[in-house]
Amino acid sequence: xxxxxxxxxxxxxxxxxxxxxxxxxxxxxxxxxxxxxxxxxxxxxxxxxxxxxxxxxxxxxxxxxxxxxxxxxxxxxxxxxxxxxxxxxxxxxxxxxxxxxxxxxxxxxxxxxxxxxxxxxxxxxxxxxxxxxxxxxxxxxxxxxxxxxxxxxxxxxxxxxxxxxxxxxxxxxxxxxxxxxxxxxxxxxxxxxxxxxxxxxxxxxxxxxxxxxxxxxxxxxxxxxxxxxx
Length: 230
Ligand SMILES: C[S@@+](CC[C@H](N)C(=O)[O-])C[C@H]1O[C@@H](n2cnc3c(N)ncnc32)[C@H](O)[C@@H]1O
Hints:
The structure is a single chain. By secondary structure, the protein is of the alpha/beta class. The protein has a single domain, classed as Rossmann fold. 34% of the residues lie in helices and 18% in strands. The chain is built from nine helices and seven strands; from the N terminus they run H-H-H-E-H-E-H-E-H-E-H-E-H-E-H-E. Strand 4, helix 7 and strand 5 form a beta-alpha-beta unit. The structure holds S-adenosylmethionine.
């Protein structure tokens, strides 16, 4: 919940309707098991995250997981790690729940909310080994650029929730957005670009995502950028 509803009127997403009966059923039946339900900023129960913070498990975050296929894939490949996904659209959450249930993947928690509000308004009791922002909405029209999720403020929110040796992984298929991200991150003193990702001991390779496939069909160049705390 935003403390001040006026504080952020420009959002990085638009409301989307369509939700299938199977997704709706998954949301009703499965979400309580996987969700971290946000209530007021000081009374939200983060015990699901806290138990990981006090364990030796690595913990990864994906922001804007879309249909959840990348998150489910990474979680299934790394059963010893824990994964949290934040996605605002219920259809994507429902789709991920169906996959988690079918494949019996138990190391994922979901926050169905605006990620900017989550990172800005809530004190997460954990820092992440890796944070993924894969193919964020590019908002290609100039008048919509202000909706892009990567801003100097967003970079600072990310810096607050990364472990000292953790990383922030961004991928995009829009050259203009890639250039803008590099500029923003370059000007953010908290981050350095990782020139040789092989040096990161905790790096989990991302799978190809649904939006990436679309970008490739359109012959867009894919840019992967990885940052570490300076
Ligand atoms: C272009 S899609 C990419 C989905 C997925 N990562 C992929 O590569 O297939 C961007 C996703 O980010 C989500 N999103 C945008 N802004 C968000 C926000 N502020 N908080 C959470 N999710 C957000 C959208 O709902 C959408 O599912």
